[in-house]
Design a protein that fits this description.
Layout: H1 2-39, H2 43-56, H3 61-73, H4 77-90, H5 95-108, H6 111-122, H7 128-145, E1 148-161, E2 172-175, E3 178-181, E4 192-206, E5 213-225, E6 233-245, E7 249-262, E8 265-282, E9 285-298, E10 306-319, E11 322-335, E12 342-355, E13 359-375, E14 382-401, E15 406-421, E16 428-440
Helix pairs in contact: 1-2, 2-3, 3-4, 4-5, 5-6, 6-7
Length: 441
């Protein structure tokens, strides 16, 4: 029995000795091969070999450092953190390890720990390229924690309109069995030049704890005529509400209000709500659907007070520098006086193409059919209008700062409008040429 115990002890001792000998042989081989694979950019193979070596000697700091780097490059950020933490247990002041650990925490979204380790490395006065990289990381962390964002556009425009008052094609207007002659400023087309200014300001509130953004948009539009001052228009609009955004869609729900004055006298105000959804079906194909409801209050003519409901839907196709969009709209306005209420259907087709040297061209067609709810006095039937539009133009990017999302764009466009109505008073043609200069900020 004593002899059996002796042989058992000897056997176990030999087994342990052989295991240690094998480990001593395998560790350098796996470690060396793993480092070679890493230097060649073969990160998956490097991770496999270094992990083999780690199982044989889990407390080796140099091995853990290289294992952490291989784990990081293969997207195993949590394993990288654990490997670097094991190194710091042996050497708490290892600046290079802290830098790599901060990068891993940054990828995991643990930004406070990442910031802490980056600052500890900065305190060691690292080489210039290292502290520049750290400053970039810290700036990115600050940006990710930013909650308030403001952007917008400001556009100055000058337009030439050959029929500013929408005067009819003929001043002789038939009304049933009778015909009357138009007189006054609306009897014949009058041309004028218009100076416009449009400011759009967007504020976005972003909180990582909320499943949505909160967007507020304010719009100011002013149109000042050089001669026909009674047509001067000022518009103010405000919309605010949540925006839900994922990789393949953007959905917003907003409350809105607006105010319009004409020749500095209040003309109309409105309030309501709107919602739109843009969904990306494919990389280059998306669709948009929207609905808007508004209550309108007209200060000049109470008979125009109305509830307006509008629905729109359309696809957008992107192919290289080409963009093709089609939009269908359906609108219903219930006015206090039926003669001002209407049903409207329309569509717009637009093509945009980018060109060399920061140029772009666009062209579009539009059609609108409006049927009014009741007959007008003096006319035998309810009003029905068909309006066709043809637009074309060119734009050029004059200046851009991509780091600050700023740009300066010039656009020249022309729109021809042809309105054909069953009541000749609303049959007209007009041409508008407009030059715009837009700053994005």
């Amino acid at each position: 029995m004593t002899q059996l115990k002796f042989f058992a002890v000897v056997l176990i001792t030999l087994h342990l000795s052989l295991a240690q000998a094998v480990a001593a042989e395998e560790l350098p081989a796996s470690f060396t091969v793993g480092k070679q694979y890493f230097e060649q950019g073969r990160f998956e193979e490097a991770y496999t070999e270094l992990h083999k070596a780690f199982l044989l000697d889990p407390g080796n700091p140099d091995l853990n450092f290289h294992l952490g780097r291989a784990a990081f490059e293969t997207g195993r950020f949590e394993e990288a953190v654990m490997a670097y933490e094991r190194v710091l247990m042996v050497d708490p002041n290892a600046a290079r390890v802290k830098f790599e650990l901060a990068r891993a925490y940054f990828q995991l979204g643990t930004r406070e720990l990442a910031r802490q380790y980056f600052k500890e490395v900065l305190a060691t006065n690292p080489p210039e390229q290292v502290w520049k990289n750290i400053e970039t990381f810290l700036a990115s962390i600050d940006a990710s924690e930013q909650k308030h964002f403001v952007n917008g556009t400001f556009t100055l425009g000058h337009a030439w309109d050959d029929n500013a008052r929408l005067a009819p094609a003929s001043s002789q207007i038939p009304a049933g069995l009778f015909e009357f002659q138009l007189t006054g400023p609306n009897a014949a087309p009058q041309s004028d030049q218009i100076n416009t200014a449009t400011l759009v300001l967007n504020h976005i509130y972003k909180n990582a704890e909320y499943p949505f953004l909160w967007k507020t948009a304010a719009t100011s539009y002013n149109a000042l005529y050089q001669s026909l001052h009674d047509l001067d228009v000022n518009y103010l609009g405000l919309a605010t509400g949540p925006v839900f955004q994922k990789d393949n869609y953007i959905w917003d729900v907003q409350a809105l209000g607006s105010y319009i004055d004409v020749e500095h006298d209040r003309y109309q105000s409105s309030f309501g709500a709107t919602s739109s959804l843009t969904y990306s079906f494919l990389k280059n194909f998306m669709g948009t659907i929207a609905i808007k409801a508004e209550e309108k209050n007209n200060y000049v003519d109470p008979g125009r007070d109305a509830f307006n409901l509008m629905f729109s839907v359309g696809p957008v196709l992107l192919v290289g520098p080409n963009r093709l969009s089609l939009l269908f709209t359906k609108e219903k306005e219930n006015a206090d006086y039926d003669v001002n209420g209407y049903d409207r259907f329309g569509w717009k087709l637009r093509y945009d193409r980018g060109l060399p040297y920061d140029f772009a061209v666009f062209a579009g067609l539009g059609y609108t059919l409006t049927d009014y709810d009741a007959k007008m006095s003096l006319f035998p039937s309810s009003r029905s209008d068909e309006v066709q539009e043809l637009t074309a133009g060119v734009s050029r990017l004059l200046w851009q700062d991509t780091t600050r999302n700023q740009a300066l764009i010039m656009q020249l466009g022309h729109t021809y409008t042809n309105s054909d109505s069953n009541i000749n008073l609303y049959t007209y043609k007009k041409n508008v040429t407009e030059l715009n200069l837009t700053v994005n900020f």
